[in-house]
Write a structure and sequence with these properties.
Helices cover 32% and strands 24% of the residues. By secondary structure, the protein is α/β, with parallel strands linked by helices. Strand 7, helix 8 and strand 8 form a beta-alpha-beta unit. Helix 4 runs parallel beside helix 7 and helix 7 runs parallel beside helix 8.
């Protein structure tokens, strides 16, 4: 584990920890101009049949920043994340209200295939296709007609390098992706998502099934690629949010309770519910 992680605050003591210990870009002065929002959610509510999972969530995602969504299980954070690229539409009886925009354009009016190319998704458990490592990365580029056959090797290499996986798989590109370790498979899924050059990358608990070494590699990767795309990550791991996120939103019972710079959320939250969760009183 890198030195930057070694001194990250533990959640139960975060309220007594100086912001400097979080060691992430959110330390910048509040006077620095906030980047423009890449995506915006305005008064978003979501229903699974008669069950209401989200209540009027309004949240902005600044361009080229990492936003973490935290909260206890069942609080609606994954439902909200999956609404951003309309994956929840595949659920029978699901219904969304409110507005979500990407660069000011209503995502509910976009072609869904084009939307999901621009807003990629990495799921909780690695889901490589039953293909070779090369074909996994090339798949999205190929089916979307984004490059010629001769360009694919360069795109695959570039994507694997961006996912910090190239050096580990360069000599076995045509072997099955399922032969990789869990952490490697997750980085392969990230490489597959990056290959189509998404503008936003959504990650739903991407490290929950990984060991600490693999988790550290994923976290380093997220910090390294945020200058190339906007990142939104759902995590139960508050230390992870402190390490990688510029901004953090706290969800509880389907509502966004609080959203601010990550150092503010962990050091000086404005809501008692947030403080109680951060300090381990519930959750």
């Amino acid at each position: 584990m890198t030195p930057a992680r070694a001194h990250s605050a533990m959640p139960q003591t975060a309220m007594n920890t100086s912001p400097s210990e979080f060691n992430h870009p959110a330390q910048a002065s509040a006077q620095v101009q906030t980047p423009p929002a890449k995506m915006r959610a305005s008064n978003v509510s979501f229903h699974y049949g008669t069950f209401r999972a989200l209540y009027d969530v309004t949240l902005e995602f600044p361009a080229n920043k990492v936003t973490a969504l935290i909260g206890p299980s069942g609080c609606g954070k994954s439902t909200f994340l999956r609404s951003l690229n309309r994956i929840n539409e595949t659920i029978r009886g699901a219904r969304i209200e409110g507005e979500i925009t990407l660069d000011g354009e209503d995502v509910l009016k976009m072609d869904v295939t084009g939307l999901r190319r621009r807003v990629g998704m990495v799921f909780q458990r690695p889901n490589p296709f039953p293909k070779s490592i090369f074909e996994n990365v090339a798949y999205g580029v190929r089916v979307n007609g984004l490059a010629s056959r001769s360009e694919l090797p360069d795109i695959v290499e570039k994507s694997l390098r961006r996912a910090a996986l190239w050096d580990e798989v360069r000599d076995k590109l045509h072997e099955s992706a399922h032969a990789l370790s869990g952490g490697q498979q997750q980085r392969l899924c990230i490489a597959r998502g990056l290959a189509v050059e998404p503008e936003v990358l959504l990650l739903d608990e991407p490290c929950s099934a990984l060991d600490p070494i693999a988790t550290a590699k994923i976290e380093d990767l997220l910090v390294a690629i945020k200058d190339q795309c906007t990142i939104v990550i759902v995590t139960h791991n508050m230390q992870q949010a402190a390490r990688v996120a510029d901004n953090t939103g706290f969800f509880l019972l389907g509502r966004l309770i609080e959203h601010d710079r990550t150092d503010v959320i962990f050091k000086n939250p404005s809501k008692k519910e947030t403080e109680d969760y951060i300090t381990g009183r519930f959750g």
